[in-house]
């Protein structure tokens, strides 16, 4: 009787074991990491891509695979795809200051300055000692301030359009492109005079500008006179061949 009972327990135990789900095999991430260390672009895309698409992969391995693939995509000039990989990595672990900074650098290169600034700020919040993020944040903040100042005067010349009487000045006021050119000429003129080596040199530079203005006023409206070209030529002369 006891032997029969033991046999029954053995059968039941076997049946229970048969119905228990098998443990998922551990996914090996070594091939992806080896490809990343070797900077083997093709293998990174295949080996790491396989890890990224496998939901059974450990979170840390998946994050490393995403970062490795993003690095390769950057070298291939595929910034949008690299940003997408960083997005997923940060969803998996929103404490990665380095990745916020790296994503910010990509966004800045793409011209997405507001979101780049936000990424740099988040990186600094996560790691106040992050030197690269601090440098990036400061540089971009200064750039945005400068762009904001430029936008505030965009389409406005160096003079008050409400008081002009000359036809050429009215034409400049009516054309945002000409207005911007006039403001750039005025700014460049102020710079070259300020940087002149002597008072005599500064006076000579101012005489050149006065002559340009007098010629512009006199020739505007005459056949063959191109105001835009004349202004562009003057700006190039002030800035020099190197542009500043």
Outline of the structure:
By secondary structure, this protein is mainly alpha-helical. Helix content is 74%, strand content 0%.
For the record, give the distance between the C-alpha atoms at the N and C termini, rounded to a whole number.
104 Å
**Which structural class fits the helix and strand makeup?**
mainly alpha
**What does the radius of gyration come to?**
33 Å
Stretches with pLDDT under 50, minimum 5 residues: 1-22
According to DSSP, the number of beta strands is 0
Shape: elongated
Order of H and E elements: HHHHHHHHHHHH
Give me the number of helical elements.
Answer: 12
How large a portion of the residues is in β-strands, by DSSP E? under 5%
Helix content: over 70%
Number of domains: 3
What does the average pLDDT come to? Answer: 83
The biggest beta sheet reads: none
Protein name: Tetratricopeptide repeat protein
Keywords: Repeat, TPR repeat
InterPro entries: TPR-like_helical_dom_sf, TPR_rpt, Ycf3
TPR repeats: 63-96, 97-130
């Amino acid at each position: 009787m006891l032997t029969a009972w033991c046999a029954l327990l053995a059968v039941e135990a076997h049946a229970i074991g048969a119905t228990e789900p098998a443990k998922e095999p551990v996914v090996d991430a070594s091939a992806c990491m080896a490809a990343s260390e070797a900077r083997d672009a093709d293998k990174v895309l295949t080996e790491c891509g396989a890890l990224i698409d496998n939901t059974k992969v450990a979170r840390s391995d998946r994050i490393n695979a995403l970062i490795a693939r993003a690095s390769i995509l950057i070298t291939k000039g595929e910034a949008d795809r690299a940003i997408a990989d960083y997005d997923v990595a940060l969803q998996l672990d929103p404490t990665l200051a380095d990745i916020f900074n790296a994503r910010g650098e990509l966004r800045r290169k793409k011209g997405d300055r507001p979101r780049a600034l936000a990424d740099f700020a988040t990186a600094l919040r996560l790691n106040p000692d992050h030197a690269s993020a601090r440098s990036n944040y400061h540089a971009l903040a200064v750039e945005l301030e400068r762009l904001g100042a430029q936008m505030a005067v965009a389409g406005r010349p160096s003079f008050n359009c409400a008081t002009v009487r000359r036809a050429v000045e009215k034409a400049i006021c009516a054309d945002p492109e000409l207005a911007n050119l006039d403001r750039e000429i005025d700014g460049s003129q102020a710079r070259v005079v300020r940087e002149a080596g002597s008072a005599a040199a500064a006076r000579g530079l101012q005489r050149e500008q006065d002559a340009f203005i007098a010629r512009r006023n006199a020739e505007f409206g005459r056949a063959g006179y191109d105001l835009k070209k004349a202004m562009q030529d003057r700006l190039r002369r002030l800035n020099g061949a190197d542009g500043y």
